[in-house]
Amino acid sequence: KGIIKMSPKPRKVLQLLRLRQLHNGVFLKVNKPILQMLKLVQPYVTYGYPSLKTVKELIYKRGFAKVNKQRIPISDNSIISDKLGSHGIYGMEDLIHEVYTVGPHFKQATNFLWPFKLSAPRGGYKCKRHGYCE
Questions:
Q1: Distance (Å, rounded) from C-alpha 28 to C-alpha 26?
Q2: pLDDT digits (tens, 9 = 90+) for 71-87
Q3: Stated pTM of the model
Q4: 59: nearest Cα among 22, 86, 99, 30
Q5: Where are the beta strands (DSSP E) in the chain?
Q6: Residue 44: CB partners within 8 Å, gap ≥ 6?
Q7: What is the average per-residue pLDDT within 81-97?
């Protein structure tokens, strides 16, 4: 597992963005340093602005919480309110709203979410490239 045949700088950037595995996804706040990082890893990642529907589906379908460094499925709102209640986020809808509107506690909200494990592209890849070695 991990990132093979990749220069150290993009490798480090992907680790900072919490993209340590193939087909992982995270929410980021758009600012100058993040944009610089995305420029460095452009050949390895796709990015864009999500719609509210996308954010909702991702969190409901593939949302896992990070509790004590463990990946735990978000089965009920008590998991969210225990960890993020101090920031005024008490349930799924609060979490989705915070991520979508990039609210004041966006950083805590996205850090609470484990990086999403996404499925491979439906049509497959056009050609086999060396990026990640799975």
A1: 6
A2: 888 888 888 888 888 98
A3: 0.79
A4: 99
A5: 24-25, 64-67, 70-73, 116-117
A6: 6, 10, 14, 131, 132
A7: 89
